[in-house]
Amino acid sequence: TWWDDETLDGCPPHAHGEALALHQRLQAEGLVPNLVTQTAVVRAYDKSDQPTQAMECYRDMQSQSMQLDVVVYNALISACARGRKPQCAFRVYHDMLQRALRPDRFTFNALVGMCSSIGWVANTTWLLADMTASKISPDTTTYDALCVASGQAAQYNKVLHYLAQAELNALWHLLWM
């Protein structure tokens, strides 16, 4: 065939428009992309800052009764977060949970980072609680977003706490990894 799944996902950052054009060509020829291809398309929409189109792709996948995985949901959450559409990101997160898919560190980091960037400090706190309840350890990215959010809210004791936790986390990884 003239295309394969890696064609879309392997596009360099500046070529996302080409990936999206390829997706449109697939649709025009009546071909139904599989999950890997659809995930690559969602990622291209994410990188192109087009969350609305990423969500259209999501609706297409749902209408085709595709069994979506955590990778697709993470790409959708990232697209919504990058596009500064927090309600969209949380809707996708809740859909993910309803389908009994387990969020991973990427899921939480995308949501915590988004909440941090828009000043939703309370959400960063409960997301951290969900993250640790899911037995997922925060990493440097998580702690960075938590420090930014807490600093914006003038919660300097929390900033110090998160910095100390980040330092302990880094030390633990150095010693045991």
UniProtKB/TrEMBL annotation:
Pfam families on file: PPR_3
Transmembrane segment boundaries: none
Repeat: is it a keyword of this entry? yes
Q: Where are the PPR repeats?
A: 69-103
Q: Which UniProt keywords apply?
A: Repeat
Q: What is the designated name of this protein? A: Pentacotripeptide-repeat region of PRORP domain-containing protein
Q: Which organism is it from?
A: Symbiodinium pilosum
